[in-house]
Write a structure and sequence with these properties.
Layout (H helix, E strand, L loop, with lengths): L5 H28 L3 E3 L8 E3 L8 H4 L8 H23 L3 H7 L5 H5 L8 E2 L3 E2 L6 H19 L5 H13 L6 H21 L8 H18 L3 H7 L1 H13 L14 E4 L2 E4 L9 H5 L5 E2 H23 L3
Helix pairs in contact: 1-8, 3-9, 6-9, 6-11, 7-8, 7-13, 9-10, 10-13
């Protein structure tokens, strides 16, 4: 199949950007009218933002359907919609941590049903691994890890949306599938628009619905494009952040079940909490020695992800 022409690319990017921008604005208005908001605990003033603004990110996988509607597109869209529903239920009703983790495997089912995966993952220096029987289970596990790693890393204004904007922008030139190229392009446009409202000081939080959508994007692109190893290295800081939280709080727990916060905010500065019961997070580690402003921490994570993404791409293409 030939590459999409420039006019299609510009149209798709512009349409996705504008629709996400408008949708986010509308959702913010609805959120405040229905009191579906959350307090921004990292601000020295009483700051509130929409708790479900990330719903608008679903547009990032809907607009490419204008150009492509095959089995691959259907699998990615269904995966994102399942993730959205699970995340939205959690936003509004608060699911138990174990239940949410088990449900987060469901977005991986469409890829398996539509056979949109390749059970021979490429591992640098080794080659292709043959995992025909095991791979479908790894797909489900991969979605669970991606959704929850993204969700647990959504802690500060613009952090997770910016991190994934960096990631998707970096892998866009590497897309081997032209349909996936359109989806990644649309994801980039949607994240760019959403960041206008999510950046410091945020008017809209990503929310569980948004973070689950983003996690499904990461998993879908990784499995369909066969860049599992690359993604693992690129987003390794998020994975480590998630596992360190689970280990430090001794199991899967909802945020409201964790009595001690990982950081303290004093006069707009983030201080790492030295309480041994505090969860070990990237923010906790980064601010233990020296307090940081929220924007300083977010930029530091951006740089960390940029470095790990470059490393992932370099290692992945070593033959």
């Amino acid at each position: 199949m030939s590459l999409p022409d420039t006019s299609h690319i510009v149209f798709l990017f512009t349409l996705t950007f504008l629709l996400t921008l408008v949708a986010t604005h509308v959702i913010i208005k609805i959120s405040f009218s229905k009191n579906i908001v959350g307090r921004d605990v990292h601000k020295p003033w009483n700051s509130y933002a929409s708790g479900i603004g990330g719903i608008s990110l679903i547009i990032g996988v809907l607009t490419p359907l204008i150009f492509y509607s095959g089995a691959k597109a259907l699998a990615i869209v269904l995966s994102s919609l399942f993730a959205l529903v699970i995340g939205l239920i959690d936003d509004l009703k608060r699911l138990p941590a174990i239940t949410k983790t088990l449900l987060s495997t469901i977005p991986g089912v469409p890829l398996i049903i539509f056979n949109q995966y390749y059970p021979y993952p490429y591992i640098p220096f080794i080659g292709e691994a043959r995992l025909i029987l095991l791979y479908p289970l790894l797909v489900l596990l991969g979605y669970a890890v991606a959704l929850n790693a993204v969700n647990m890393s959504d802690t500060h204004n613009g952090l997770i949306a910016g991190v994934l904007l960096i990631f998707f922008s970096s892998i866009l030139p590497l897309a081997r599938d032209h349909e996936i190229l359109l989806f990644i392009l649309s994801m980039i446009a949607s994240l760019s628009a959403f960041l206008i409202y999510n950046s410091y000081p945020a008017k809209s939080f990503v929310g569980n619905s948004g973070s689950f959508i983003l996690g499904s994007w990461v998993a879908s692109v990784s499995f369909v494009e066969r860049i599992e190893y690359l993604t693992l290295i690129a987003l390794f800081p998020l994975v480590i952040n998630g596992f360190s939280i689970i280990i430090s709080v001794r199991g899967l727990k909802e945020r409201r079940e964790i009595a001690v916060r990982p950081v303290k905010v004093i006069s707009g500065l983030i201080y790492g909490n030295k309480d041994p019961k505090a969860p070990i997070t990237l923010a906790n580690i980064a601010s233990l020695r020296k307090p940081l402003r929220e924007t300083e921490f977010v930029i530091a994570v951006y740089m960390l992800i940029l470095i790990s993404t470059i490393l992932g791409i370099s290692l992945f293409y070593v033959k």
